[in-house]
Write the structure tokens for this entry.
Amino acid sequence: MINRNFRAHWRLDKEIVFLNHGSFGATPIPVMDKQREIQGLIEREPVKFFMRDYEGFYERAQEALAGVVGAERDDIVFVPNATTGVNTALRAVPLSPGDEILVTNQEYNACRNAVNEIAKERKAVVREVRLPFPVKSSEQVTETIVNSLTGRTRVFLIDHIVSQTALVVDIEDIVRELEDRDIETIVDGAHSVGMVPLNLEKLRPAFFTSNCHKWLCTPKGAAFLYARKDMQNLVRPLVISHGANTPRKDKSRFFHEFSWTGTDDPSAYFSIPSAVDFLSSLLPGGLPALMERNRSLCLEARKIIIGALGIEKPCPDEMVGSMASFPLPDAVSEPIAPLFMDELQDELFMRFRIEIPVMYWPKFPKRLLRISCQAYNSMDDYRKLCNALKEAGM
Ligand SMILES: Cc1ncc(COP(=O)(O)O)c(C=O)c1O
């Protein structure tokens, strides 16, 4: 495995073993510098920037991202985060009273709340399918989902890469199975771009949203929403602004409505080309090579952690990206207030200076430990984790 000192490109605290890229990402110094440069341009002549230059910056960011996710430029727009992307997509799918929204028991809490709210408004029904974890194969997941569909299922919200279990779900099979039954799929790919290869033109779900501030390492507040062409007439941003009655006919209403939702700082979106360039420059094979390097590191790290915990692989290698989760012995103490934090997470941070999440899943006292593997991590980080777990009595 290629092991270079990429860590120097990040401002991460040298005293901390940082194993939680998954929660909020971490932005490399050159990309942060680019963001500051853009902010400088805005403040040099704000009217010129927003009235004359904004759209060019927007299009260049769309283009850079479209190349990475395999989409047409005009099928993607920016939203501040995946939570906004999911809320927006859910509101676009026509639902009548009694129609079913399908979700899994591994759905991210914020997005599950959005599903519950929209179901309440539309008098729709939320149906939950229980995905196994530990899991044997991708086929087992697809089969479980397909078996839970009913004649009333209209839309399925599925996480591409699950937050708690870190499973990489085979969404291609799932989208095809549902398409055959006229059911729309919304893919919550909060972790996808920069972690796994994407080809949205080929996948063609109704909607796909992904954060750029996680695995593409942009500044916080950058995500995208892909909408299949036939969905672009149905979807509206959560904030209605000038685009709703623009006289311009040169671009779609989808573009005009989403590209301006009121004055804001667009520098995180406009730093996307810089993040793509930076990550692509780290290895000779570009971003695909970096994703492969992070995945290989994750598989290698997973091996030693499984050994240290004395457990079986919770999922096959094919379902691993650059995060992996491990079942731990049940918690014995109540979570620590006020953060509802597990005592082991607190001990790993306070005693060993390791930043890593311990999540209650499916619920307290059951818990999972999740590692992340980004360019700045190396095997040494996971060896330190194994030693700390041993000393903490795991
Ligand atoms: C599956 C999934 N969906 C949505 C989100 C929310 O991301 P954000 O807070 O950036 O909206 C996350 C965050 O980890 C996630 O894992």
Remarks:
- Residues 46-69 form the longest helix (24 residues).
- The first strand starts at residue 17 and ends at 18.
- Residues 6-19+285-391 form a domain with the Aspartate Aminotransferase, domain 1 fold (CATH 3.90.1150.10).
- The chain has two domains: 6-19+285-391, 32-276.
